[in-house]
Design brief:
It comes from Sinocyclocheilus anshuiensis. This is Kazrin, periplakin interacting protein a. It is a single chain. By secondary structure, this protein is an all-alpha fold. The protein is about 55% helix and about 0% strand. The chain contains 16 helices and no strands. The longest helix is centred in the middle third of the chain and has 20 residues, at about 170-190. The protein is globular and about 60 Å long. Mean pLDDT is about 80; it is low at about 190-215, about 235-255 and about 275-280.
Amino acid sequence: MHRRKLRLAIEDYRDAESGHGLSKAADLDHHWVAQAWLTDVGLPQYSQFFHTHLVDGRLLSTLTHTDLEKHLHVSKKAHQNSLLLGIQLLHTLNFDKEILQSRRSECGNQNTDPVVWTCHRIIKWIKEIDLKEFADNLQNSGVHGAIMVLDPSFSSDTMATALCIPCNKHMVRHHLNDEMKALVSAARAGLDQEVEPLGTPPTLHRQSSLSSSSPSCHDDQQSLRRVKQQLGLSPKNFTGRKISHQNRSGSFPRNGLQEVSLQRERCPVRHFSAAELTNV
C-alpha cells in the first residue's frame, strides 16, 4: 500500500510538472480520510487501519474489495460496499472536497440531494420522521447517502434492518418505506450516470504512466498457425472433423482411427529431416 501511494504521488507530480497541475485527490490527505471521511460514511471503527496505511485521496481512488479485506481489515461485505460507494461519490465529484462540502451544507436543513448525506445527516433525518428511538442504531453501520441512492439493492427493509426495527412492527416499517420512497426515488431518477460495478476501483482523471503493458502474442500465434497448416497438423486434417466431436472419455471415435493412420502416412512431417523439424 505504501509503494502504491508513492507511485501515485510520483505520477501526479510528474503530470503537474507537465502543466496539468496536481489532481484534486492530492488535497485529500490521510488525516482527512482516516478521520473526517470515515466518520462521514459511518465507519470510524476502521480509522486506525486507514491511518496506519496512510490512505490519502490518491490511494483511496484505487481501493478494491481485496484491498479493503486484506490490508484494511474490512471483512464485512456490507461495509466494503459502503466504502466503495463512498469512493464512487468522490469519483463522481472528481475528488473535489470543496464541492462535496458545499453540497452538504446546502442540504443540511432540508431534505434534498441525499446522495451526499453523511451518516450523521441520515440519523438527523431518521429523528425528523419520528423514528428517534431507532436513530442511534445507525452509528458505525456504514449507512450514508451514497449507498442509499447509488445502491439499487438498498431498500427500506435494508434500512429497517440497520435501524434494528423488529419485523413485527409493520406500521413502523411501512412508515419508513413511504419516507424513503419520497426521499430516494427522485434522487435516483436524477442520476446522470450509472454506478460502476462494486470492487472496480475508481481512477483519477489521468491514466497511470507507470503501469506496464504486457507484450502482445498475436503475431507469434499467427506464425505458429501458418506453420501448423504447412505441416498438416491442423485438427481437421487428422480426422476430417473438429476435435470437439470427441467422445466423453476424450478419445477419438473408432471410425476415425483408420483415418488417423492414413493421414500419418501422408503427413508432410515424415518428409522432413530431424534438423529441419527441430528448426520448425
